[in-house]
Amino acid sequence: MSEKLIIVTIDGPAGVGKSTVSKKVAAATGFTYLDTGAMYRAVGLFFQEASVDLDNISQVREKLDMIEIELFPATDEDSDVGVRLCGEDVSEAIRTPEMAMVASKVSAIPVVREVLTKIQREYGTRGRIVAEGRDTGTVVFPLAAYKFFLDAEPRERAERRFRQLKARGEEADYQELLRMTIERDNNDRNRLVAPLKQADDAVLIDTTALDVEEVVKQILAIVNG
Ligand SMILES: Nc1ncnc2c1ncn2[C@@H]1O[C@H](COP(=O)(O)OP(=O)(O)OP(=O)(O)O)[C@@H](O)[C@H]1O
Ligand SMILES: Nc1ccn([C@@H]2O[C@H](COP(=O)(O)O)[C@@H](O)[C@H]2O)c(=O)n1
Q: Where does ATP bind (predicted)?
């Protein structure tokens, strides 16, 4: 396979470390990092601001036709990918735990997935992509050369999100984060369209007892073969 077609997919549940690990793998390989979650968060923000009735599919379709999402690279490994929504920088607004819950709702709507999956695949045609999300290895890039599924205990993942928010100087309630983590897991795993699951040919890495560097090392050992 020519190198330009190599795509790495990293899927897994909320708070497991996909973004952190994916950015480091992309930096180490010189690949481009694709944060598919940021797209769903941006759609969620757009629908919320436009007071879209998520049960009104024709309204959802009409609003989807108006949306313009632009991702731009994170300034460093510790920052998130930037997002412009119809020209407005919403990079911070999409990163709240509340927006994650909204994203988890809109991501269950088939036409939303259809539109965003098409955009994600267009990114993929460039090759040399590290794509992270819930369905990048099962639906978006089923022929990806390397697929990984990261997992960890829900309490560990809520702990990680708690430490992340506190480190950013943000208010955080561990019990509420644990509740939201479990709710997002249920939404993502049980939806009818593109549910969160390990691709049959994905390498499972249980990160519960591993630190970030150990996870990145395991992935690079396989990708760099
Ligand atoms: N193996 C690990 N051990 C300890 N902390 C980790 C590990 N992996 C990631 N983290 C930390 O956990 C926090 C959440 O990681 P990250 O945002 O990458 O998760 P995510 O899977 O992208 O979450 P979401 O899907 O909700 O966006 C970050 O502060 C990150 O540094
Ligand atoms: N490929 C994806 C990526 C994300 N989602 C949904 O968006 C929510 C937010 O994603 P984060 O990775 O930024 O937390 C997530 O909870 C999913 O519901 C998706 O469905 N498919």
A: 12-20
